[in-house]
């Protein structure tokens, strides 16, 4: 079906249509075909053909669909068949400047948002910008 009847091309075309019932059917079929393709080798030959058809763009658009079953199915297909898993220890540019603890290198040891441990916190109120009401005007608040 895939090779002789251009099934992948047909599914890619159906995924651009606005009809919800057709989208559900096409996404279900696409998931089934990709599941079969994953048993044929690595990389998945059907996923490679679909990438050539720019199915990733179509699936990205469908992840914004108003019908939850549509966007969930599109998300699951992208997650399961098109996102490349990064090898452990090879995080590339994303991890530059991060040590093994996940903390950025050359970063301060801790962020200090309060008084030092063992000291009593002090509070102050800044009244700058507040002015008493004009003569004869209503007070800002009443007691």
CATH topology group of the domain at 7-82: Leucine-rich Repeat Variant
Rounded Rg = 29 Å
Number of strands: 0
Strand fraction: under 5%
Largest sheet: number of strands, sense, barrel closure = none
Helix run count: 5
CATH 2nd-level architecture of the domain at 7-82: Alpha Horseshoe
Structural write-up:
The protein has 143 residues and is mainly alpha-helical. It has a domain at 7-82: Leucine-rich Repeat Variant, CATH 1.25.10. The protein has helices at residues 7-14, 20-38, 45-52, 55-62, 68-82. Helix 1 (7-14) runs antiparallel to helix 2 (20-38) and helix 2 packs parallel to helix 5 (68-82). The longest helix is centred in the first third of the chain and has 19 residues, at 20-38. The N and C termini lie far apart (82 Å).
Descriptive keywords:
Leucine-rich Repeat Variant, mainly alpha, elongated, 143 residues
Indicate the topology:
Layout: H1 7-14, H2 20-38, H3 45-52, H4 55-62, H5 68-82
Helix pairs in contact: 1-2, 2-5, 4-5
Quick take:
The protein is mostly helical.
